[in-house]
Amino acid sequence: MMPTPPDCALGRLASGDPRVRRAIDRAHCILDKPIPLLIQGESGVGKEMFAQAFHRSGTRADKPFVALNCAAIPEHLIESELFGYLGGAFTGARKEGSMGKIVQACGGTLFLDEIGDMPLSLQVRLLRVLQERVVVPLGSVQTIPVEFSLICATHHHLQDAVAHHRFREDLYFRINGLTVTLPPLRERCDVLDLAHAMLKTSAPERELSLTPEVCDLFLRHPWPGNLRQLNNAIRVAVALLEPEETRICLMHLPEELLETDDVMPISAAPAASAQSSDLKSMTLSAIDHALASTGGNVSAAARLLGISRNTLYRRMNAAPVDSRRR
Length: 326
Ligand SMILES: Nc1ncnc2c1ncn2[C@@H]1O[C@H](COP(=O)(O)OP(=O)(O)OP(=O)(O)O)[C@@H](O)[C@H]1O
Known about the structure:
CATH superfamily of the largest domain: P-loop containing nucleotide triphosphate hydrolases
GO molecular function, one term: sequence-specific DNA binding
Domain Sigma-54 factor interaction: 13-239
Radius of gyration: 24 Å
Pfam family, one: Sigma54_activat
InterPro entries: AAA+_ATPase (IPR003593), AAA_lid_NorR (IPR058031), Homeodomain-like_sf (IPR009057), HTH_Fis (IPR002197), P-loop_NTPase (IPR027417), Sigma_54_int (IPR002078), Sigma_54_int_dom_ATP-bd_1 (IPR025662), Sigma_54_int_dom_CS (IPR025944)
Number of strands: 9
Keywords: ATP-binding, Nucleotide-binding, Transcription, Transcription regulation
Bound molecules: adenosine-5'-triphosphate
């Protein structure tokens, strides 16, 4: 499998994690081929961002990317949103009708988020569209030919849903040309890389870093909200930073991160002592992760941790042998 070129949108998705890298490379192999992509993973792992990057990397990049979240709208509305309708097709319908997401996506990409939550009755209709490549809007007898690239995403295990008759097997085989699974953030080894990339995006004009305590917390936190939660934490921290400050420390983080962690709560840790205890409390897991994600490059690991190279060497040498085996 060829590595994804770094100059396309898929290649630019920050990832030092081998599972994500493999998902990117596999998806890149089917770019511009008539193979539907299915993206699995917990909420907030970046499924929609992955789908958008996939769309932007292909020849359809300048065509529409049309998304529909099947879990976010009621059953009767999904039908009209997806297939469109003629004016007056049902009570409350717009006078001028609606072309529907499938027709809007023609020539581009249709992204069906939370496909596992699509009601069974609509699954039959979607299957027909995918097989026959035509849409019949509600209230119409005319067929509209459609051509689009399909990406679906779900946090459900679709094979289980098929086994429990909540998802049609024939539709499952239609939509999973290639399945990629994005791991939850707690299992990724590039949490600090992601945090730094998000820092750059949140404050492009500033040279900001994370204190070792923050790195340590980030590495230990279970991140139930995944990348969405990390991104939110970074945005909050940047907003709370004083203009002259350049280091994100614990006091800048959202409270729920500190409450669910065994780090000393901020109420008991005044800002000054939080700063001075940074280095002492930096655990070896932070150092190990930083070294692992930089391929053992001490200078890069020190930059990632927001400390100098010499300080990192001192910290590594001071580490008791037993604790290094943790
Ligand atoms: N590769 C990435 N780099 C930086 N930030 C990211 C990345 N992927 C996701 N994010 C951040 O996480 C947020 C959630 O991403 P996204 O909506 O793609 O997740 P999702 O898995 O589709 O979530 P859901 O299942 O809840 O719809 C995004 O708004 C973005 O802020």
